[in-house]
Protein 1
Amino acid sequence: MNVVLPMLKFNLKWYGRVMRDILFRYKILLLFVVLLICPTLASLCHLLILPLKSLFIYPVTDVISFSASLFFYQIFGVIWISIQFISLFKPPWHKYLLTLELTNIQKQLIDISLLLFVDIVMWIPLLLATIKSITMLVITKCIVFIALTLLAQISLIKSKYSMWAAILLLDLFIIFTVITFSQLSQFILMIVLISVIYLLLGRCYENPSRQSLTEKKQSGVFASRINYHQSFPMLRIQIKNLFAYSSQLTILFSLMLVISLIAIVLMIFGITNPFLPFLISIAMLINSLSVSNIFNRVHTQWQEYSSYLSALPVSQFSLFKNILFIATGITILFNILIIFVADFLRGNDFVAKIMIAFFLAIVFLATTYLPQIKFRRLGFFVSFCLMFLFLYVDYLLI
Amino acid sequence: MTCSLEIKNASKSFGDKKIYHNISYSFEMGSYAIVGENGTGKTVLIEMLAGVSLQDAGDIFLTGIGNNQSQQYKQNLTYIPGRPVFFPDATGNDFLSFISSVKKYKKSNNFINSLIEGFKLAPHLDTKFKDMSLGTQKKLFLTTIALGDGQLIIMDEPTNALDDTSNRVLQEIIKKISQDKIIITASHDEILLNAINPTIINITTRPVTSLT
């Protein structure tokens, strides 16, 4: 315990610092999101708690909503941690930590204490959902759900993905339990489940055996082959580099998915709205604006290695070409989804109108390159302002 | 094609600290070693020659090719920095492919294969840069000597983190290629310097006003 508390203090200090930077970096986006959801904050809270309530109802009548809430809660937990992975588990001293003689239990406690704190945002809705009907069974169930979510998160942190199969089996077992057994039997089985989860948590911290390490190393040796004429090496490196920052990419993809889904919902329910094509064009431009942050990131990474890269005959144009190719690819992926749905729902005339917005969104993306790399932190704001110019053009053309 | 590397009246300062003042020198075909105590400005000179850091005044150029900021100059340059840095998730093969692509070098040759073999790099070519040891990263950078038809090779502390076998391989490479290229090395390594027998440029004073 004497190690766990100081470690929690260090980890939280680091987490606070990194999160502060992230909040500062995305301040405009956050402001936008807050303004968007503020008017409906109360109903949003209600919406958040509503599905969780189904987890504690006895007897369970709606198995589908129970299962959906259970899976959704765990998936959200995993996404929540994956987007904060670096700020949580990659402090500058994490390699040094590996050299310390910490027992597996201590390591578990260090990670779990940090996760329990960071997951407060998940625990509160869960507790609010139970507040009106606290019984021993409800408390036990609550502990099981929290423990299962922690297990899913820790298996992500420790890259023990095979553990997810075990979690799935446990979920199925829980579903079977709540629809089959009485309250007392459920309570006993939940206690058993807590012990099983505890054992599985321990498995996540077991070191790989020496033999498996040797096998891994040997298979790596045999897998290597000389190939210094790969196709599009610059593109490959940039893509790999982007995926290395998977948490930021997850945020970006989630945001774009939400925007695309909003556009689709608008197309389903806004049949009579004359401004519908214009609203869709806004969604497409926002998708481009979100992707434009990639320019800044790749450029910053390029600067990081400039002590070597600037000695190479790489032109700024070839760098621009490669980043634009990646960014356009991501934008098209989401915007084409809107086009396909539009084609399915609304027919040719509508698609012809939003195709203009589709191409303008790509042109807009290309124009954000210079602001993003020249103005750095202000780059997003300048691109945001530039977006209104394109909105105006969209308005005129559509 | 034979060419020379010229430094004409180059100066470099960092704030109030004057490191080089109005220096001129001509590097012909062959091997050169820049030696001197820590902090005298060897790396600064190497970085100026590599075009990584710009001189405040004067000119550095390859005759008939261009100055140290031109694409043609960089096309003719192989630079091995003191600290090998590259995108951490790129593999060895990615790195070599990237260099051969930017150098527009499409040929396969025995030279690079012999370097990969000599440096025992083959098992590490699918390893990510961040997972390689410092020595392996350095050897990977040294392998780029074989990629391209450049006239100029600049190396900053090339033997740092190298094992004895790789050291000997490097000595042989420098001896071999210095016959038709300009090789400039900043090094403290007496064994390397004795083996390759370069023209020594000793940097002692500050600011440096001449290279001898």
Protein 2
Amino acid sequence: MKAIDQVTVTFTSRSANEGFARAAAACFAAQLDPTLDEVADIKTAVSEAVTNAIVHAYPDCLGKIVMRLRIFDGGVLEIQVKDSGVGIPDVDKARTPLYTTGGEERSGMGFTIMESFMDGLRVRSQPDKGTTVTMRKRIARRAGSSQ
Amino acid sequence: MPITVTSRDSALTIALSGEIDHHGAREMMTQLDDAIATRLPARLVLDLSGVTFMDSSGIAVLLRALRQEQQIGGSLRMTNIPTQARRVLDAAGVGRLITLD
């Protein structure tokens, strides 16, 4: 399936960029005329994916995070967050609610929130190569929309 | 200053504000730690009306405050929860642990 629009942003794994990534994804999705709740869902899911990359992919250094945003026919928004960090040894375990290796500052609910706020979530990871999180959400066309 | 503290009788109300993500969570945790350790409130109310965004980092902040209240035999409830934060709390099942008004 061919994307009808796409944007790719690359940023350093600094926590200050969490807010930037949320805002960038929300701005790109605006062309689909999402509801306020849908915008909030997108921002929340992006925040979780990017925070995971910042905290877990590059625990002792700064690295590169690539966020690719695409739109497909039918109002489908795809958000891909890719890092070249340490990778996740056991993706199924990492996706378990409350599981975290991040200590008291993390809740272990990141993947659970991504799953509940988006329509689809795929996580691919290779130790020492990096992790790619791909999420999709369909934004329903609203009455009177010119989309 | 992401937190504002007010007290009445035995209840301590702490208003949280701004975006509670991983970037801002540590400072908020430190400020909450200090407020709880100093006042030892029997009842702690967290007012979320000023929270413009919250993700799972915020849940870690709230669960830490809950543990601290439990350690001193106090209680915790949350009030004025904006829609976006409410959806995050619901998705994580936080309502089973903390009273959400």
